[in-house]
Amino acid sequence: MKFTLRIWRQKSREAPGKFVTYQVDGITPDMSFLEMLDVLNEELLARGEDPVAFEHDCREGICGSCGFLINGLAHGGRRGTTVCQLSMRFFKDGETLTLEPWRARAFPVVRDLIVDRSAFDRIIQAGGFISAPVGSAPDANAILVPKDIADTAFEAAACIGCGACVAACPNASAMLFTAAKLVHLNVLPQGQPQRYQRTLNMVAAMEAEGFGSCTNHGECAAVCPKEIPLEFIGRMNRDLRRAIFRRRFERWRDATQ
Amino acid sequence: MKTSRVSSANPLVMLWNSVIGKKIVMAVTGAVLVLFVIAHMLGNLKVYGGQQTMNAYARFLREMGWPILGHEEGLWAVRIILLVCVVLHVTAATQLTRLSWQARPQEYHEWKGLASTFASRTMRWGGVLLLVFIVFHILHMTFGVVGFSPGQFKHLAVYQNVVAGFSVWPVSLFYIVAMVALGLHLDHGIWSAIQTLGFNSGRNEHVLKLVSRAIAVIVVLGFISVPVSVMVGWVR
C-alpha cells in the first residue's frame, strides 16, 4: 500500500509548526499505524532528516501513550481503538492522511505529534488516597462488591488517560477523563471514606488546568479507545453537587487556593 | 492556581464558582425555562378557541392565585423568576463559552464530528438569536412598541394584537425562524440538562434524547401554527 502523509512538524513548544507532506510505499495492510510511521522514520533517518516524533510504549492499546488525529478524528475514529492498534487495512490504498497532535491549552505540543499531558497526572494526584489497610492481604471476600458496581468501576478503570476525549471535544474539556477517574473509586466500597473530598479536589484540579466546559456533544465518548460512557460525566456532576451541599467547603478552599 | 476563588462558605456561591456548578445552574434554570415555554405554547393555542377564550385567558393570567394573591401579583412573581433564570442562564453560558474558547487557542486544521449534532453545535449562537428574539417579542406583544402602527396595539386585547401583529410578514418570518432556533436549542438542551444533572443512566440515554426531541418538535409546531394560521387566514 501507498500513502501520502501530511504530518504536523513542530520542533519545540515555542517553535511555529507546519504541515509537511511525505510519501510512504511498501506498507502492508496488517501493519499498525505506528509501524507505518516506523517505516517512514527509517527512510527519514536514512536520508539524514529528523524522524517524526510520536509517543508510544506498549503498542497493545493499554498504556495510553499514543494518540493523534488522523483526518480530523482522534485515534483515527475507529471505535474502541488506539492508533497503535489501528491497522492500515482500514485506509484506502493511495489515500492522503493528515496527522495532527491533540490541541488544547492544557496540552502544549512538545514536538511534532507529542503533547505534554502532565495536566492529567496532576488531576490524578489531586485525588489523594483511599484508606486501604496495610499489613497482610485481606480475604478476597472480606469486602463484598455487588456485580453491577464492580462492572461500573471496571468500566471506568479502563481509562488509559490517552487524552483523546480532550482532543475530540469541541470545548477541549477534560470532564470524561476526570469523571472516569472519579467514578472508578467513588462507586466502590473502598472509595467511600474520601468520596466527596476526592470529588472536590479532583474537579478543582481539573478546573485549574484550563480545560474547557462540557456541553454534552458526546464526541469524547465516541472516540474513547476504552469506550468510557458519557453517563459518567453526569455521575461526577452529581457527586460534586452532593459534595458542595454537604458543606465540605474547607477541602474545596484548600484545593483551589 | 488562582487564589480566593471561593470566598464564601455559601454552597450556592461555591456552585457558581465551579465550572461544573455553572453547568448545573444552566441545567436548572434551563429546566424552569423549558416548563415556561411549554406552558406558553399551550396558552397560545387558546387563540383557536376564539377571541373570548383568548382574552379571558389573558385576564386570568393577571388574576392567578386570587384571592391569596392580588391583581398581577402572581404574574409578576412568574416574570421575576423567569428574568432571574434568563440572567443566570445567559451569564453562565457566556462565561463557560469564553472558557471553552480559551481552552483551545489553536484550532485544528481538520476536525470531524462523530457524535455532535447540528443542534448541539448551534447552542451558543442559537441562544444569542433567542435572546434577541425575547427582547423583540416583549417589545412587540407585551408593550406593543414595535411591529404595530400607532394606536393599533391594545392592552389585554390579545386576540386582536396577535392577528394584527402576525399580519406583518417580516415579523411572522422572524418569529418562525426564532422558533426553529428554539426547537434546536430544546432538542439538545433538554437532553443535555438531564445528562448534566446526572439522570442519564446510559441505558436510558436513547429514550432521553428521543423525549427531548419530541418535546422540541411539539413546542415548535405549537408556536409556529399561530403565525401560520394568521397569515393563511384561519385566524382573523
How would you summarize this macromolecular structure in one to three sentences?
The complex is a heterodimer of chains A (257) and B (236). With 257 residues, chain A is an alpha+beta fold.
List the helices and strands and how they pair.
The complex is a heterodimer of chains A (257) and B (236).
Chain A: E1 3-9, E2 18-24, H1 33-46, E3 69-70, E4 73-74, E5 96-100, E6 109-111, E7 114-115, H2 118-126, H3 147-157, H4 164-168, H5 175-186, H6 195-208, H7 219-223, H8 231-245, H9 249-256
Parallel strand pairs in A: 1-5
Antiparallel strand pairs in A: 1-2, 3-4, 3-5, 6-7
Helix pairs in contact in A: 2-6, 3-5, 5-6, 5-8, 6-8, 6-9
Chain B: H1 11-17, H2 19-44, H3 51-63, H4 73-103, H5 118-121, H6 123-142, H7 158-166, H8 169-196, H9 205-232
Helix pairs in contact in B: 1-2, 2-4, 2-8, 2-9, 6-8, 8-9
Can you characterise this structure?
The complex is a heterodimer of chains A (257) and B (236). Chain A has 9 helices and 7 strands. With 257 residues, chain A is α+β, with helices and mostly antiparallel strands. Chain A folds into 2 domains: 3-111, Ubiquitin-like (UB roll); 119-256, Alpha-helical ferredoxin (Fumarate Reductase Iron-sulfur Protein, Chain B, domain 2), CATH 1.10.1060. Chain A has a 5-stranded mixed β-sheet with strand order 2-1-5-3-4. A two-stranded antiparallel ribbon of chain A has the order 6-7. The longest helix of chain A has 15 residues, at 231-245. Chain B is mainly alpha-helical and 236 residues long. Helices cover 70% and strands 0% of the residues of chain B. Chain B is built from 9 helices and no strands. In chain B, helix 2 packs across helix 8 (169-196). The model of chain B is unreliable at 1-7 (pLDDT under 50).
